[in-house]
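Predict the 3D structure for this chain.
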Amino acid sequence: MIRRLMPPALFVLAACTGGPVQNVASVTLDGATYPVEAGASGWSVIVDGNRLACRAATEADCLWAVRHYRTSQDALDSLG
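Done. Predicted structure below.
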């Protein structure tokens, strides 16, 4: 019986690659525009370098993701 073991680093590398992403839209909130990308795991929007998952593949759902993110960041900033 021949057993081939794959190094654990290759498993991590394989898990991290989600495939190619495409810019499909953009959303604007308070004058700032955020790119929306479509990938293997669905649509996501990039805010301050963070990738936020959109609930559904619509611009409206991505806008809500941005609004919730901004609201939570404002709440955290108000704590000091």
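The first helix runs from residue 8 to 16.
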